[in-house]
Amino acid sequence: xxxxxxxxxxxxxxxxxxxxxxxxxxxxxxxxxxxxxxxxxxxxxxxxxxxxxxxxxxxxxxxxxxxxxxxxxxxxxxxxxxxxxxxxxxxxxxxxxxxxxxxxxxxxxxxxxxxxxxxxxxxxxxxxxxxxxxxxxxxxxxxxxxxxxxxxxxxxxxxxxxxxxxxxxxxxxxxxxxxxxxxxxxxxxxxxxxxxxxxxxxxxxxxxxxxxxxxxxxxxxxxxxxxxxxx
Length: 231
Prior knowledge:
- Residues 52-57 and 201-231 have low confidence and may be disordered.
- 44% of the residues lie in helices and 2% in strands.
- The chain has eight helices and two strands; from the N terminus they run H-H-H-H-E-H-H-E-H-H.
- By secondary structure, the protein is mainly alpha-helical.
- The two termini are 30 Å apart.
């Protein structure tokens, strides 16, 4: 309320896939002025790409990063012993590989902290209210789908978070981290990694490349950003 006095505010319905296959096409075609060539190109690429779908970016669990940060906060990562190797991305990826590849488990196999349906009900109702306010026709046609998607996500434990306290009392992870301080455990295929640092604070829900930590440095100094998130 009040923004309209200063800005031309537009709201994009990321769930409406009737016109475009991807969010990128919807953005450049409907929300970026004078981007006609980019719009046309994105639509050509949609037609050429047989795998193009309406699916958003594949979800990647943040549990491993949260566990790495919690382990560091508890002093279980001896960064000073090997600062070039024991970077935050390295520890995170080693934990992920151990959990999923070596043990054959899923992120939801960790002990989790989950809200109840009653806890989430106000958020669901607010989501429905906003949808009705901004996209009344879409809301009318898709309210039941909205509710079903909520149930689906709830049953898949998508609203939960890893219980790092419980995980770091597990003998398996304590032994794993102790060994990881001394040697590389899993040879993981190289990928472009974010150069993030361990910080002294407990991990928070929001993550970014922040000011350099004076004691627990993770990774090389970098001015890069990690999806605009903050530690």
